[in-house]
Design brief:
Chains A, B: It comes from Marinomonas vulgaris. Chains A, B: Pfam families: TetR_C_13, TetR_N. 2 copies of one chain form a homodimer. Chain A is 72% helix and 0% strand. Chain A is an all-alpha fold. Chain A has one domain (9-190): Tetracycline Repressor, domain 2, CATH 1.10.357. The first copy, chain A, binds a DNA duplex through helix 3.
Amino acid sequence: MSKKPKFEREQVIANATNLYWEKGYHGTSMRNLQDAIDMRPGSIYAEFGNKDGVFKASLEFYAQAAIAQLNKIKADGLSPLEALKAFVKHAVVDSQHNAPSSVCMLAKTIAELTEEHEELLTVAKQALKSVEHQFALLIEQAQEAQAVSSQKSASELARFLQIQITGLRTYAKTSDEPLPLAQMIDDLFEHYPFQ
Amino acid sequence: MSKKPKFEREQVIANATNLYWEKGYHGTSMRNLQDAIDMRPGSIYAEFGNKDGVFKASLEFYAQAAIAQLNKIKADGLSPLEALKAFVKHAVVDSQHNAPSSVCMLAKTIAELTEEHEELLTVAKQALKSVEHQFALLIEQAQEAQAVSSQKSASELARFLQIQITGLRTYAKTSDEPLPLAQMIDDLFEHYPFQ
DNA sequence: ACTTTAAATGAACGATCGTTCAAGCTATAT
DNA sequence: ATATAGCTTGAACGATCGTTCATTTAAAGT
């Protein structure tokens, strides 16, 4: 004796993610959100609690999508290093034209929020850390296959890679003229500290 | 027959910059600003026009302060490469504890704002470009002194350096444990594409 | 068919947003 | 001393913010 919610939770969160990704936490109002996900305030609050609840769900969805993307690329039968490079190109190059913002949503969130929203900040940090851990696993494999230098540890290289991705994606938004991003990424993997 | 404004414009903008730097454009309200700069709304609007006007003045002040800092370091008699390294350490390491945010205010602004605030975005982009140009001038000198590889052009290296600084400063905020930032910067200048 | 129960709705709340402006105040010129 | 010019003040504006909840709707159980 009940009634099931009719909205598609996955699609709703995907739409919310796109809006938050584009406009940021403070730049997005609940009314913006209502339009983007086609839900009325009562339903949103019943499902997510409040504005922070929707944002938290979006951060987790975004991170999960990134890891799913990495797994999908891994399934293509590429070498660990090639898979990693393909993922970076996807994250950096494709998001220039196909994404709400060229900047990584997690990096944007960490840059935007203060201790005033500690929980959201923590979720974003942990999400970024879990992606970085996936990088480290791939790098470890690449090192075992002698495809990447072992001068630095896999976790150090994963950290280095996060820094490069964050820098590239943010810089891409600062530049009006198009950048040779794919070439810059090839260059990246061909030199220190990867080779 | 008149009356001079009694506030110190420079100090007011410095305080506004610190607040905007910490909380971002959308995270800062005019009432936050009124408290931080100790001015009443009428005086603020007379001096700056509106909220965007204060933000624009802050962006320009921030960029000017960065270039002044670089010039100050250059006056210390260091080599061009040493000066550049000292500046990067100042920007990356010192801002971890002595600044409103570890993240560069210009990068934060570019990540936060959309085309909805085109003018502010343009100001931030141009400011970052002018800092990058100062890098290029120093790098050119370092290349002439054979202190930096000439494999890549000075402007390419300046771009590369901006990407590293943006990446490092953002990553620093994502990390709860302290990072060996100074060492990472030394490492940066000792390898490709600088050497 | 009827009852039950939970989901969906959207008007409305108090708070806060960016901004305005009439009134007050004070330094300067006469 | 007085008049004048213009900076300073802060109450108040309409708009929008995040959020609530009484009401309506409709699917599931009998």
